[in-house]
Amino acid sequence: MKKKFLFSFLATGMLLSATAQTVKPAIPQDPEMESKIETLLAKMSLEDKIGQMTQLTIDVVGKGANVFHTIIPFEFDEAILDTVMHKYKVGSILNVPGATPQTPQEWTDIITRLQKEAIAENGIPVVYGVDQMHGTTYTVGGTLFPQSINLGAAFNRELSYESGRISAYETKAGNIPWTFAPVVDLGRDPRWPRQWETFGEDVYLVTELGREMVKGFQGSDGKSIGRDYVAACMKHYMGYGVPFSGKDRTPSYISEQDMREKHFQPFVEAIRNGALSVMANSGMNNGMPFHANYEYLTKWLKEELNWDGLIVTDWADINNLAFRDKIAANKKGAIKLAINAGIDMSMDPYSWDFCVLLKELVEEGEVSMERIDDATRRVLRMKFRLGLFERPYWNVSDYPDFASPAHAAAVLKAAEESITLLKNNDQILPMAKDKKILVTGPNANSMRTLNGGWSYSWQGDKADQYAQAYNTILEAFVQKAGADHVVYEAGVTYKEGGAYWEENEPEIQKAVDAAKNVDIIVACVGENSYCETPGNLVDLTLSRNQLALVKALAATGKPVVLVLNEGRPRIIDEIEPLVQAVVQVYLPGNYGGDALANIVYGDVNPSGKLPYTYPKYAHSLITYDYKPAENMDKMEGAYDYDAIVSVQWAFGYGLSYTTYEYSNLKVDKTSFTANDVLTFTIDVTNTGNVAGKESVLLFTSDKVATLTPDVRRLRAFEKIELAPEETKTVTLQVTGEDLAFVGYDGKWVLEAGEFGVQVGNQMMDIACSSTKKWATPNR
User: Fold this and answer.
1) pLDDT tens string 497-507
2) Distance of CA 553 to the CA centre of its chain
3) Catalytic position from the list 314, 348, 461, 625
4) Pair 263, 301: CB distance under 8 Å
């Protein structure tokens, strides 16, 4: 028989955490809310609690041939809905039905029904989550931002914040209160198919932009989430972006020093700024899967940071502990490992046997009620902070600015500021609109390639269907210069319905013939859309067909502008010397074609800078913050060798249509301690004849340390805009403790000694006067 009651909330006083910390809580506490949680928890059965810890995909409760094939338009399977919501009391649903984006009203209808069923059962609303990864990616008509790698290239905190804020508003329009974003992994291996989901390779850049996106999503310190905001879910905790093989969801081998100093820091910063949830890394490090790692999940994340938020698994990753990673004999053993390690919610998308098996584990004494209660509190706490008990569903009309012109303008600006000019021989760019051009290549006339994965569907393969209202590169160029000035012949095309890397038989000669009567060739190459494991590759080199196309076009003698539209830096060393200009657009979204046309024709001055190191060779991969031993000209003696770092373009590189002069680098103190704030100033002058935006980057180098230091590290950046001949004094602040590193013992230390500082071409030395070692693992 169904229970038909709503829990009442009585003031019983806030229960202190069983693992009370001296560390200040990461999110401010609300005693009244904690009292409500304890009152509710006391009334809940074991089944109620385990239900709150369970997350299923929406396809399970939809009509279809099976849970993997859902009928669209979506309809509930009433019998299964009853089982899920009333027998197993499932507390969270995720994903998009039938791999098909929904309108805000369709989302509202689905989620309102789920909420009514859940509240009728035990008074506890469902929390619905989706992967709104670059704007409102699973909502028809929503605003899609450039991917995160573009935001990294923009080096603009405000754009990252706006991406989160606008995405939150439009996500909320469909009654969805939780997004599985942002990705704050470090994208340090260009082979990895999720490189484009990151802000780049550098820990400081990722930390700064990740924090701003979390603030944009949540709009507060995490204590309560307003009507226009959603809960953020940082992923993937942690070290996910450096698999040893370069392939998705494969093992990493990261030292404790590197893990704490680099991979942990974006999560620390976001949690200290109120992030409500974290998704665990699907892989393993040094043989231990993250979903079973008590040290990382409970000690580092929950106890050290005194964080009361929620840890959710990634897709079916508890199952993987048994069936892939072989650290448990069966699913029941895997559940025991994961829950005891600190997992709070199981994304076990297609099966509710998690509910059955976890109950058995509790009854057998293998999982404690204390752990169940802790996990349930965390789920309930997020629901209270989201205001779902007071407002579990709402009307689409409450969000009248959905897909507004202002939102579109913000997206265009983000795309423009991210596009990076990498080569511009003889100032071939910007082009005059009266030049006749050939637009060619497989990425020239595709919305799918502009958006990449997580765009209307997981693999992004539905973007051409749902983004027809926007301009491809070809359409944007025609709109900008007129049809009489644009010729189109693809030469190479992607195979419709095939794997992302599959191409049709090339028709290169057609493109060569089309080039005879044009002034300039714009060759749009790169990658088709992909996401996660299906995006794995075996060769980072650009496809042979595309290389052959560019070589044949260059042989015509016509100047070639190479447009790179790719999720990761594909190797182009064979063709780069043959072209006059290279423009990297990454995955700029629905307004990417317009942004590129604005830049190519000079209406906008490019200002993007590479957020990663662009490799020159497939087997010579390195990040900008490498160790000194990786770049030695010669070693004397019998073991003479060369280890010269050779890259196509460096991290932070990007050209402009104007020139900037840096001068007068100063600091308010040349001797400092850990507690000091160092204030640097630098004069930047636009010495050209057009206005432009410049990202001013400050790097430091620790000259001698007890562990080999990185050759340099980004410590501060600001983006400014300058009119021709204008000079601005830019202020950049760095705290003394920012220059600390994690020592061999796993503790942070700032050592006395000299540091080099570089901003543009200006350099200076500063000195730390005293060593400080932190007593705790965190600063």
Assistant:
1) 999 999 999 99
2) 36
3) 314
4) no
